[in-house]
Amino acid sequence: MVRKLDPTDFRACRLVLDPDDFGLSDGQPDPQPTDLVTEEVWNGIKTLPDDVAVRTTSHQGTRIAILYELWGGWVENFPKSEIISAAMMDAADDFDAALFNLLHGFYKQAIAALRNALEGLTIASCCEITGDRVIQAAWEDGKEIRFREACDKLASSPCFRDLENKACGAARTSIYVGDNGSGRNAWARDLYWRLSRFSHARWDATNASLWNSNGPIYSADGMRLSYYAYIETYALLLLVSKAAASDLKMPVAALVIYEDDSLRQYLAQEFQDLCAFYASELFGLQLNEARTNGEDASSRC
User: Fold this and answer.
1) CB count, 10 Å around CB of 201?
2) Contact present, 121 and 154 (Cβ < 8 Å)
3) Angle formed by the axes of helices 147-156 and 107-130, to 10°?
4) pLDDT at res. 298
5) pTM of the model
6) Confidence of residue 289 (pLDDT cuts 50, 70, 90)
7) Using an 8 Å Cβ cutoff, are 159 and 166 in contact?
8) pLDDT tens digits along 110-162
9) Between 61-74 and 39-59, two packed helices, what is the crossing angle to 10 degrees?
């Protein structure tokens, strides 16, 4: 049997915007509903996701706040590069959708949105760094550009070749260049492969397998997977975007995810030194810099 939230809980009330809250509006009051959905349909759509959202924000409030702050930091400033700025705007929507979906228990869809962000910004960075306007025109025209192709071109570009050589010396791995033939042990390729598992038809990577039921329902495993995938994708894409657009600034909210204790929580061991290397090389960020204000923020991740 369902029940209503305590009316003193701020989540019990729904909010709608007034006409003057919009940037473009005639200021006139909203019309009364002309085709109101039935209560049965509304409850059928909303009850289960609402339940997940309430449970998630009751017990994972700090983590949800971290992702929200990261999204806010992402949209604070975009670089001058048109293609990187446009791709980052698209990625902002992907991060927003990922947060909304994981909040409501659609973990597979949250991870799929992160895959979109990784793919789009990698291709945009490839176009910007290599100056390949043929690929850019094809991509903007809607033609398929393979992720592997963009990675290969970035790996062979003078900009990334120098960075990757230094990274291999410092961290024994790299973002795009792998040493196992397929390159899958490179960070970007490995992450894309892991995110893609949730975009393809695999019985062990469905929402149902995460819920262990029909749903959506709250899943600790689903929350953990999508939460850490969000942070890892964000961390990588911020570095890649900086390599393509030198005027990009580090969002204050993102400092914590590059702190050494945080890296150990969300990132595989083989990529921790690599992430720290690139954060230092591109942003001048040193380990533990997130704690310069006297706050041990790393424990929040």
Assistant:
1) 6
2) no
3) 40
4) 45
5) 0.91
6) very low
7) no
8) 999 999 999 999 999 999 999 988 888 888 888 888 899 999 999 999 988 89
9) 100
